[in-house]
Amino acid sequence: MAFKMHEIRELIRLIDESSIEEFEIDNEGAKVVIKKAGGREAVLQTPAPAVPQTAPVTPAVPPAPTPAVSSAPAPAPEPKVESPAASDDLNDPTLHKIVSPMVGTFYRAPAPDADPYVKEGDTVDEKTIVCIVEAMKLMNEIEAECRGTIVKVLVENGQLVEYGQPLFLVKTS
Question: What span, in angstroms and rounded, lies between the C-alpha atoms of 100 and 112?
Answer without folding.
Answer: 20
